[in-house]
Amino acid sequence: MDGDAKLQILIGALSAAGASALAIDERGGVAISTMNDVGLERDVAAFVAERLARVGDGARLVMGYAGSRLSLTVRPVAKEYGRFWVVVVREVRGVAAHAGIEWLNVDEVEARYESSAYGIVEGAAGVATAVRDSYARGVPLMLEGELGAGQSEIAKRLYLDGLYADQPFVSIALDELTDRGWRHLLKSSESPLFQAGLTLCIGGWHAVESRRMRELVSTMTDTALAARCHVMLTANDMPGGGESDQAAFVTERLACAVSVAPAIAEQGGVPKKVVRYLGYLADMFETAAPALSVAAAKVLDAYRWPRNYLQLREVSERLYILVGSGTVTRSVAEEVLAQEDVIKTATFGAPTLDSDLYILRPLADTECDIARLVVDHLHGNKTRAAEVLGISRTTLWRLLKDDDH
Asked: How sure is the predictor about 356, in pLDDT bands with cuts at 50, 70 and 90?
């Protein structure tokens, strides 16, 4: 059998498996290929060649192309006449059709991290050593904290600094999945839950109903997902960063290591963070960076920042719009934060008083506020909160559930 016949057999086998292949040298030159799209062949070769320095044996990359996602498995082959890399190319079918499931490569993760408020303010050294150690333990890592405290960004930073950055990063937002997306996640052989060597970041647990959550956790446990992939979970659905019932259930069932992302107000040094973001904006628009007066810094430092880095971005952008390359004064800082409280109230129904309790509301709503405040004060301990309030856990659950609507 001659070489052409063998190549045709190989092409047929790969096609039947939904794949194609090519061999490239270290400069991205194509030695042999089963692909019939010359443009795609050239782009795949260039994409892989740029990453050969960090690609190990059996590495798997993800490449975006013409609105689809391609999975590239790369293996080195040493020959007496030189070194080549064989690239097997498969389309990640169905990924684009499922909102809430996103496959990313290391370059895309890095770009998103660096453009996030957390990445801009904290840079590459924003993850504490204790969190890195927990991530390295090989068990699922639960990242908790207040809304906007940077849980998803911390997950990206851990991935970028870890040993698995030559493999895909898959973000799963459970609160964005449709019924079709849930079927894909739990039943399809192409689901990221049934792959190996991935880094998974799974969030949105607060929106998952009990039946689906138990089915998902059972699937993750029964298939030993944490032994095949690196798993990070994020939870940010409780005021004050307290542990939700869903997060507690998942943490216990999956034996997660737990780390709480500190709120901005807890960290201190808010003015320095704002200055960093203002400097980023100045660089972007090629202007001088605005200055921050001492009085304005005190106002920013005293603010609670309930939405953390999400809010820091919005406030910094409004400050920049108002002062340009000038100076942020106390009155400007107070004006912007007052606007932020109005936005918060209109968007979330949240009060602006220090107690987080606004009394000019219907009694039923105020009861929900009181229940939430007591639970927050007791760090999420609902049993103790029910005792303090003199009500049953069922009544407390109803009040908290009504408060979520």
From this structure: very low
